[in-house]
Amino acid sequence: MCLLPWLMLCACAVAVTSQPHNVTRRESGSGHSKRVVCYYTNWSVYRPGTAKFSPQNINPYLCTHLIYAFGGLTRENSLRPYDKYQDIEQGGYAKFTGLKTYNKQLKTMLAIGGWNEGSTRFSPLVADEERRSELVHNVVRFLRQNHFDGLDLDWEYPAFRDGGKPRDRQNYALLVQELRAEFDRESEKTGRPRLLLTMAVPAGIEYIDKGYDIQKLNRHLDFMNILSYDYHSAFEPAVNHHSPLYPLEEDSEYNFDAQLSIDYTINHYLKLGADRDKLVLGIPTYGRSYTLFNPLATEIGSPADGPGEQGDATREKGYLAYYEICESLQSDEWKVERPNPNAMGPYAYKGNQWVGYDDIDIVKLKSQYVSDNGLGGIMFWAIDNDDFRGKCHGRPYPLIEAGKEAMLASARTSNDVVSVTPSRGSSKTSPKRPSSSSSSSGSGSGRQGPQSGLRTNKKRPSSSRRQNKPVRSSTTTTTTTTPAQNYPGTTPEPPTTPDPGSDFKCKDEGFFPHPRDCKKYFWCLDSGPSNLGIVAHQFTCPSGLFFNKGADSCDYARNVVCKKKSGETSSSTTKAPPITAATSRTTRISSSTVTARTTSTTTPRPVVDDDEEEYGEDDYEDEEDEGEETNPQDIKELLNIIKNIGTVLVQ
């Protein structure tokens, strides 16, 4: 009888020691599976001079996922391009998805929604089961015909904005569930890789809680792109940094801004049940600018007298691309302050102008934060606002490159164990917030930059005491898996020479010669309601003709005064093959040796009504590169197109 308790004790000991600890180990090279997601804004092609950005400027090896912003919804429960002229007729979609012909691992996706789409169309659509069913079928068709690898949902925001309803939260989750089911079904029937399904999710706590069923969304989404910027807008009465990693003040019941930080947002998503590896941290490549009420009061919290002056390229008050900021900071007149470099990026001021932005150092810290916390990657809004021409740091895309290198290097050197979950749940806590360090000032180069509009919480949330935020102690089983992708830590050089752009800027409407090529000319037109100012549209005269400013038309060489006609330039050069549109089943590249003289191909434009979104396979013919020869007789019809697309405001 005395042996029985001893035997039971031994049995318990054996059971405890043999119990698995749920240790998950990374596979070899899985550190490279971290996502580097980059949004591309199609309106950046209308920026003036060398700020113009098109898919030809994108290095296909820079990001793991490229997202084209934006598409919209139709009344017929389908998707539509926001800018049919740029997206379809000028081959924007085709050139964007064609980047995959260089990098086979690259994923190109389409984002629908954005700030301007709001809730007016989303809310009634998701509330109707029949309309949802029709939409999910049309989505697959649209994505496949345009060669996208997935859909990024960017409803800003469910249960908010004009048209939003309280039931949006559950209806949005139903739409995601049905989209995922349709994506799975289509893949099984066709044998094609499954379309990816992602979502842009807010940073503001109120938006999250009222509009997003995180547990349900987490089951069906491949990952979530957190809009962890614009915690403060340029229209607030005091200056503030729009993307802090941590709050400046220590934890306290009187720290009313504790919720307005990336660390708080991330831990809130984890608390709601999001998987760590599905959370992608958003990093801005833009700055929020203010006009100071008192130019002598420049510290955080100083009174503001409205948004800052617009930049020459982005042309929006309160918003500056990183390349606009870093070029300005090369002047000694700007002063840079870093009140807490471990908590947020710097700010700079000159006279009554003030701008907060993310520089290389804070981007590295945020990327390190992603690795330390086992998150799914980093996201940049937007690729076209980074210093893509490399004017400030000697290489293109300094912010994206810095974030990518820091995240991948940290993932490679970190312990092989991702998470160790004991049987009874000792919890791992988030890293403690670094203490404030001394401020530094000088004419350093602070940086930032995307296109405006991904706005999160504009009003301050109710005050609450920020508590220690433990990471979930139990492992989570999810039905969504994304294949690991092995990306090199160093980005290879782009396979083609990026579009160099032109230093020409429109000062007035009309026709103007290209400063370096007599065959080319610009047509400067006011962009209308889009408030982009006067936009330059470049054209090339037909073969054998040159632009004659006196006649505002293409003319014979004998009638044109030109120091160096492009048709007589130096010997022919070999270009990399242009990216062309393809059929829905194949993606092909036409390879050729191109001289300065080109031959245009006549491509019929698809005739589509404003509300008609039925695009057949034959509607997408090969598009010529920019600089395509243009018949001057056909130019006038472009005027109405440009005026129409002017109504599409940037996000």
Compact description:
Helix content is 22%, strand content 18%. It is of the alpha/beta class. It folds into two domains: 33-415 and 437-442, TIM Barrel, CATH 3.20.20.80; 510-608 and 617-645, no CATH class.
Q: Key features?
A:
TIM Barrel, 7-stranded antiparallel β-sheet, disordered N terminus, 23 strands, 13 helices, 651 residues
Question: How would you characterize this protein structure?
Answer:
The protein is an alpha/beta fold. It has two domains: 33-415 and 437-442, Glycosidases (TIM Barrel); 510-608 and 617-645, no CATH class. Helix content is 22%, strand content 18%. The protein has 13 helices and 23 strands. The chain has helices spanning 3-18, 84-89, 92-97, 122-127, 129-145, 168-190, 205-211, 214-220, 262-271, 322-328, 360-372, 398-413, 637-645, and strands at 23-25, 35-41, 65-73, 79-81, 107-114, 150-155, 196-201, 223-226, 279-284, 286-292, 304-307, 319-321, 335-337, 347-350, 353-356, 377-381, 417-420, 441-442, 510-513, 520-526, 534-540, 545-548, 553-556. The strands form five sheets. Strands 2-3-5-6-7-8-9-16 form an eight-stranded parallel barrel, surrounded by four helices. Strands 10, 11, 12, 13, 14, 15 and 18 form a seven-stranded antiparallel sheet that branches. β6 (150-155), α6 and β7 (196-201) form a beta-alpha-beta unit. α5 (129-145) crosses α6 (168-190). The longest helix is centred in the first third of the chain and has 23 residues, at 168-190. It is globular and about 75 Å long. It starts with a helix and ends in a 6-residue tail after the last helix. Mean pLDDT is 77; it is low at 1-32, 415-484, 565-633 and 645-651.
